[in-house]
UniProtKB/TrEMBL annotation:
It is an enzyme of class 1 (oxidoreductase). It comes from Bacillus solimangrovi. This is Flavohemoprotein. The gene is hmp. FAD binds at residues 190, 206-209, 397-400. The record marks 84, 396 as: Influences the redox potential of the prosthetic heme and FAD groups. Residues 152-263 form the FAD-binding FR-type domain. Heme b binds at residue 85.
Length: 405
């Protein structure tokens, strides 16, 4: 139990964290990786280089400080991060390391403002916050390990099938090397895949949404080849998977994780809106609605550049054709002449508020969306303008959490 004095000191640092939070977290990662380079086997270095991870951590630290007197308020965020920690094999012994370098970073960035009293209060507060994470994650580890077909840590899977879905997206069908059962998952969850890429000093771990419904036989991930753009280099793992992992090869994955899942207890209309590779968590959601909630009205909207970049189109069409209550729409940013001739899309350009307003017939609709950050910002703004209540808006970031407002 934190003392009122500790709570007051930590809350007094909230305005400072709002200004200097990212500087602190950038310093934190630099200090920690210098002394513990083995942790580079866990963290996505691209997210470090482009600043996404420091920014996400700064937001988490800010939220924890702001709610230090009521940590239950940040439990949804703790659970979301906890799922990622569990899928990356973050364990209790990592938390003291993080705490040590977080305090050193606060001291280095804030200098004289980080008095002994402030550092001591933050040390106590971090201990309380870490205890919450460790407790939540302990339950997640237990659930993953004790589930039917579940396992602990990384498990070897064979690439049973590899299929090109578009010019930039390929699906990978993974079956357990030991031939034993695999755990089921909630539609929308992901797995972590670990590979050793030639030329890379450290192991690379990435998280990919499971793109097919639970079937007890295999897991499928559909991976976009991430090409270099501006300061971001080619995707290390996506390029390796596309070019160098072939049928019969073995990779290691953790059990399914994630809290971005379809709420099947609700019967209200559901709308899935995806951009590019953002449709992968929605394919199993759509199939689940069709199979388990045949009376539930569902709409599937997908945006792509054109048909060359549109993956899993026929698969979605088959699901839609099998149901009386599911409709789907396609939006192409730059359709080809063949797309026009084949009437392969329903809207040209971008998804906008006016078009969505025609498709959202009731504000009780549950809206799920995922895609590139600019796309997500536009969709978030549009559905709010239409009047969909916040509690009915669900989204997933591919990578560290960002800001949509």
């Amino acid at each position: 139990m934190l003392s009122q004095k500790t709570i007051d000191i930590v809350k007094s640092t909230v305005p400072v964290l709002e200004v200097h939070g990212e500087a602190i977290t950038r310093c934190f990662y630099k200090l920690m990786f210098t002394d513990h380079p083995e942790l580079l086997n866990v963290f996505n270095q691209t997210n470090q280089k482009v600043g996404q991870q420091p920014k996400a951590l700064a937001a988490s630290v800010y939220a924890a400080a702001k709610h230090i007197d009521n940590l239950e308020a940040i439990l949804p965020v703790v659970k979301q991060i906890g799922h990622k920690h569990r899928s990356l094999e973050i364990k209790p012994e990592h938390y003291p390391i993080v705490g040590k370098y977080l305090l050193l970073a606060i001291k280095e960035v804030l200098q004289d403002a980080a008095t002994d009293e402030v550092i001591e209060a933050w040390g106590e507060a971090y201990g309380a916050i870490a205890d919450v994470f460790i407790s939540v994650e302990a339950n997640m580890y237990k659930e993953a390990t004790t589930a039917v077909g579940g396992w602990e840590g990384f498990r070897k899977f064979i690439l049973a099938r590899k299929e090109e879905e578009s010019d930039v997206i390929t699906s990978f069908y993974l079956k357990p090397e030991d031939g034993q059962s695999i755990s089921t998952f909630a539609p929308g969850q992901y797995i972590s895949i670990k590979v050793n890429v030639p030329g890379e000093e450290y192991t690379s771990i990435r998280q990919y949404s499971l793109s097919d419904a639970p079937n007890g036989d295999y897991y499928r991930i559909s991976v976009k080849r991430e090409s270099a753009k501006e300061e971001i280099p080619d995707g290390v793992v996506s390029t390796y998977l596309h070019d160098h992992v072939h049928e019969g090869d073995v990779v290691e994955i953790t059990a399914p994780a994630g809290d971005f899942t379809l709420d099947t207890t609700k019967e209200t209309p559901v709308l899935f809106i995806s951009g590019g590779i953002g449709q992968t968590p929605f394919i199993p959601m759509l199939k689940t609605v069709a199979k388990e909630q045949p009376e539930r009205k569902a709409t599937f909207i997908h945006a792509a550049i054109n048909n060359h970049f549109h993956a899993l189109k026929d698969e979605v069409a088959e699901v839609v054709a099998s149901s009386d209550n599911i409709t789907n729409y396609v939006c192409y940013e730059h359709p080809t002449e063949a797309d026009r001739a084949n009437q392969a899309f329903d809207k040209e350009g971008y998804i906008n508020t006016e078009w969505l307003a025609e498709l959202i017939t009731t504000k009780e609709t549950d809206v799920y969306f995922c895609g590139p950050l600019p796309f997500m910002k536009a969709i978030n703004q549009a559905v709010k303008e239409i009047g969909v209540p916040t509690e009915n808006i669900h989204f997933e970031f591919f990578g560290p959490a960002g800001e949509l407002e």
